[in-house]
Specification:
The protein has 22 helices and 19 strands. A hairpin with a 4-residue loop joins β17 and β18.
Length: about 700
């Protein structure tokens, strides 16, 4: 009976798809004035229908396996060409363009419909007929409302009518979309990307164009470069990556043998390394799951791309749509989303229980992105910002109840792409060296540093060479110095490369100004970023990205504070990896380093949750046997009474590079110990770090 029902559902879906496809092709081919809608709106519907027709052409194309590389390139570009920078000014996915034509409200909403269609390019390759069909039907429902409006003697339907179409679209499909997303992250049945990595002929770079992502010359060059490396080098890179994941469980005292799956996140071009990583994880008893970064409103978080992804066809396009939820978010929909998330995790409860967490290979090298802040893009209002925060907190608690923080781990490693410049090969070799340094040497010197810091009441950090930082970071109090420590001795486990000691500061007494002349956070560039702290909480913030102070503050509010009124300093750390710093200066790539490596090249400060979020009660011990006790702060301790106030669901590291660092000094009531002066380690026993 179940198989019969499934067959009937598949047949009905195929009929819906065929009907939608036929209607789309009719609209795309209509001449202006004979479409049954007001002529002023025909440019939008024709361009959007034309893009949808490209999706349908790609769906029906059967020659991909035999196609030449040039043909594959051409077809890929054809799918993405409308949003590329050279065409974006007149693209129907650009809210600024459409608001100029149709007004602020309607322009934003129509651009959203285009974006949802755009988000389904991967669905063509994965043969997800349902996902593509419901977006085609959304577009056709919007079209029909304009047809009906003209029949009633109106140029266009009211905005409220269109907004309700969008509202019920997201409400009706949030359950199925959420279930598919959770299944793709925890289950093994949606294995398109796994098969893409494991079954493709990686020596033939045409394989990149079977992924459904936007592929450029850079991804081709990266794949070709990795194909040219000896097998031993690939094995070394993959072993560092997977061993870091394993050590994350060992160091934290977590039982890896209970876990059965691991998520692997990576950018296109690194498939040869990832295939070896899959083999390595298999030897640990773990099945690798690869899921895709999504541009759909159902899954995205801002403009960040989390999961497997190709090149960004246009980062400004993604940035313009980062708050598309503003078009429909209300409390009822938020409740619907939470219900859908709980139902999905309940359905995959067993898979969640044996999931070990993510293993992320990140890339860097592209030019820093400084977005344009546009009033014409959708923006959450104050009530919606609060709802968004409530959802983030509630969904974080829910996910943690199924994938328990005290039982899971992660690892992150980063490598450059050819966009970093003509010395790419030399830089890649240098980063391999940085990522595979002898951790035992660092562990010893970092322990010297920790033994000093454990005697201090606070740490004083001051900038130089134009850096205006002047901070006092209060430290927590040791009850039993013989058995306890305030700083974790971090070597190359979850957080690769080696090289930092870190703590959760005491919020009370932590105060002053943190300033960085230029920094790259979560894919966005900040110029002259300033954060002011009092009792460990951000009380002021500014930058120099835009001419307007209001725009600068909003940029930070949206992308660093993530709509919170304030955030605590969740982490203070001292990076010790001078090899990474030296490589950055030698090749002039300091502005291109990801935070993963940059944080090891100076002291850094994380705003948001501590490093121990949701696992504060799990004991952590350093290699010398002492327990690291500074796992909580005044905010996270609120979890005992009201968990909704304890976590912020974000953690953003901000680093002061060595050449902007005047001093780092540990201070007690009776003594001071300078650890770094003028960008050099001067604490006895740590001088070798300067080499």
């Amino acid at each position: 009976m179940k198989e019969s029902m499934t067959a009937q559902q598949d047949m009905l879906l195929a009929e819906r798809f065929a009907l939608a496809a036929g209607r789309i092709r009719e609209i795309s081919g209509q001449e202006q004035g004979d479409g049954g809608i007001a002529p002023v709106f025909m440019p939008y519907f024709q361009q959007t229908a034309s893009f949808a027709e490209k999706l349908l052409d790609a769906w029906e194309w059967e020659g991909q396996e035999r196609a030449s590389l040039d043909t594959l390139r051409e077809n890929c570009r054809r799918l993405y060409e409308d949003v590329l920078a050279e065409k974006y000014d007149r693209c129907c996915g650009n809210p600024a363009y459409l608001t100029g034509l149709y007004g602020r409200e309607m322009g934003k909403l129509l651009a959203f419909v285009y974006m949802e269609l755009y988000s389904q390019i991967p669905s063509v390759y994965e043969r997800d007929q349902e996902a593509l069909t419901v977006r085609l039907e959304l577009f056709l429902e919007i079209w029909q409302s304009f047809v009906c409006a003209l029949e009633e003697g109106k140029e266009a339907p009211g905005y409220g009518e269109l907004q309700q179409i969008v509202y019920w679209f997201v409400s009706d499909y949030t359950e199925s979309e959420t279930e598919k997303r959770v299944e793709s992250q925890l289950g093994t049945s949606r294995d398109f990307l796994y098969r893409y990595v494991m079954d493709s002929d990686l020596e033939d770079i045409r394989y990149l164009y079977t992924s459904g992502e936007y592929i450029t010359e850079q991804e081709e060059r990266l794949a070709a470069y990795l194909n040219g490396l000896p097998a031993e080098t690939i094995e070394k890179i993959a072993a560092t990556f997977t061993e870091g994941y394993r050590l994350g469980f060992v160091v934290a005292g977590k039982d890896l043998s209970k876990k059965r799956t691991v998520n692997i996140c990576f950018p296109a071009g690194f498939e040869r390394v990832i295939r070896q990583a899959v083999y390595n994880f298999r030897e640990m008893g773990l099945t690798s799951i690869i899921y895709r970064a999504s541009a759909s409103v159902f899954h995205k978080r801002g403009s960040a791309r989390i999961g497997f992804c190709g090149a960004a066809a246009n980062k400004q396009f993604l940035y313009d749509h980062r708050e598309d939820e503003a078009l429909f978010l209300d409390r009822k929909y938020m409740g619907r989303k939470l219900e859908a998330l709980k139902r999905a995790y309940e359905l995959y409860r067993e898979q969640a229980d044996v999931h070990g967490g993510p293993a992320c290979l990140e890339s860097f090298g592209e030019a820093p992105f400084a977005p344009q802040e546009k009033e014409t893009a959708p923006h959450l209002d104050e009530m919606q910002r609060q709802l968004s925060l409530e959802y983030a907190a509630a969904s974080g608690r829910l996910v943690n109840s199924y994938i328990k923080g005290e039982e899971r781990s992660f690892t992150i490693i980063a490598f450059p792409t050819p966009e970093i410049g003509p010395e790419f090969a030399q830089i890649f070799d240098a980063i391999i060296e940085v990522n595979t340094l002898d951790y035992s040497l660092y562990q010893k010197m970092q322990q010297v540093m920790i033994d000093t810091l454990d005697q201090a009441e606070y740490v004083r950090i001051r900038g130089c060479n134009g850096n205006r930082t002047d901070l006092k970071v209060a430290l927590q109090t040791l009850r039993d110095p013989a058995r306890e420590t305030l700083f974790e001795n971090c070597v190359a486990d979850v957080n690769i490369p080696v090289g930092e000691v870190f703590t959760s500061p005491q919020l009370e007494g932590t105060e002053g100004l943190l300033h960085v002349t230029s920094v790259y956070l979560n894919g966005l560039e900040y110029k002259d970023l300033e954060l002011t702290f009092r009792d460990g909480m951000i009380t002021g913030y500014d930058c120099r990205n835009f001419s307007s102070p209001q725009e600068n503050r909003k940029y930070i509010q949206d992308n660093v504070l993530f709509h919170h009124d304030s955030l605590p300093m969740g982490e203070f750390a001292i990076g010790t990896n001078m090899a990474a710093y030296a490589a950055a200066r030698k090749y002039h790539i300091a502005d291109r380093l990801p935070i993963l490596i940059a944080e090891k090249t100076g002291p850094h400060f994380a705003v948001g949750d501590t490093c121990y979020s949701h696992s504060e009660d799990l004991p952590v011990h350093n290699p010398d046997g002492k327990e690291m006790i500074a796992r909580d702060n005044a905010c996270s301790l609120l979890r005992h009474n009201d968990e909704t106030k304890a976590y912020f669901n974000c953690h953003t590291d901000i680093t002061i590079p060595y050449d902007e660092l005047g001093e780092v000094t540990a201070v007690s009531e009776r003594e001071e110990w300078t650890i770094i002066r003028d960008g050099r380690f001067v604490l006895p026993g740590c001088e070798e770090l300067n080499q």
